[in-house]
Write a structure and sequence with these properties.
- The chain has about 170 residues and is an alpha/beta fold.
- It contains five helices and nine strands.
- Helix content is about 25%, strand content about 35%.
- The strands form two sheets. Strands 3-2-1-4-5-9-8 form a seven-stranded mixed β-sheet, sandwiched between helices. Strands 6-7 form a two-stranded antiparallel sheet.
- Strand 4, helix 3 and strand 5 form a beta-alpha-beta unit.
């Protein structure tokens, strides 16, 4: 099973459904979940309204992959997210994180939401690279790979995104 944290309108959910037998897609917003459900009618996807800052409705060691894209900058305490990921992942399971690079945040870049020709800034917290790696380590996850990503037109600027693939260490 794949667990998607912060699925929004389902932009990445379709890909996850193509590579996994079952996808459980969480988002805190009823509106986003409604849009995702109406856009994607897939047999192997369950959309659920959930606050990921509280215990997740998943059995211990029941998930093969946790995916989180552009969500953690809106979460103050990373340790809980990494703790829950470790709890629900099977031994050897993976936790993929892709976030706005902290270098961009240092320069003042923030996530915004556009609706009805109005732009709203969304509360964001800066998490350094060491915050991600440290939270993972403290919760039994090991860093496998890390990447930094640019849009082609941004090659001379700091990276736009940072990604991590963590793996759950086998429990003795």
């Amino acid at each position: 099973m794949i667990l998607e944290l912060g699925c929004g309108t389902g932009k990445n959910t379709q890909l996850l459904a193509a590579i996994g037998e079952q996808v459980l897609a969480f988002d805190f917003s009823d509106g986003m979940i409604d849009r995702a459900r109406s856009k994607l009618r897939l047999e192997n996807v369950t959309f659920t309204v959930a606050d990921i800052t509280r215990r997740w409705d998943c059995e211990d060691q029941s998930v093969d992959l946790v995916v989180c894209n552009l969500v953690l900058e809106h979460i103050h305490d990373l340790s809980f997210i990494f703790s829950e990921s470790s709890r629900v992942l099977r031994d050897g399971g993976k936790f993929f994180v892709c976030e706005l690079h902290p270098f961009r945040q240092y320069l003042g870049t923030k996530a915004v939401f556009e609706r009805d020709q109005r732009t709203s800034e969304i509360e964001a917290f800066v998490h350094d690279i060491s915050d991600f790696v440290g939270s993972a380590h403290d919760n039994g996850l090991t860093l496998g790979t890390m990447g930094e990503w640019w849009h082609e037109e941004d090659r001379e600027k700091p990276p736009r995104l940072v990604s991590f693939m963590f793996e759950k260490r086998a429990q003795p």
